[in-house]
Specification:
Layout: H1 5-18, E1 22-26, E2 30-33, H2 42-57, H3 64-97, H4 104-110
Antiparallel strand pairs: 1-2
């Protein structure tokens, strides 16, 4: 293994492991990751990580820009999408919180 291969192998491994790490934690849903039971963008990231690893092992370094741009694009899209959805949820909660009222059950359970 050459010194040029080590960063590529580490990068591919990082992408592969990162797919299964949580990207957001929601109160009711729990932790959500890229893979999302093979329904999320994580499948594409896994494919790109595998292709990247194969390109590194074949020493085809010039072609790595394709998988790099693809991975970065998917990650950027997901980041923007998650931020947008979280802002929508926060706005919805704030809107609905104005309609919340304490009822008799709250008083009884507090005693």
């Amino acid at each position: 293994m050459s010194t040029r291969q080590l960063p590529g192998i580490l990068g591919s491994a990082t992408l592969f492991i990162g797919v299964f790490m949580p990207i957001v934690r929601l109160p009711i849903v729990g932790e959500v990751n890229y893979f999302a039971n093979a329904r999320g963008d994580g499948v594409l990231i896994l494919v790109l990580a595998g292709v990247s690893l194969a390109l590194v092992l074949l020493k085809a370094y010039r072609e790595l820009w394709i998988t790099s741009v693809g991975s970065a694009g998917i990650l950027a899209y997901t980041f923007v999408s998650v931020q947008s959805k979280m802002n929508e949820m926060k706005a919805q909660v704030a809107k609905n919180a104005a309609r919340w009222q304490t009822q008799l059950g709250e008083c009884v359970t507090t005693l």
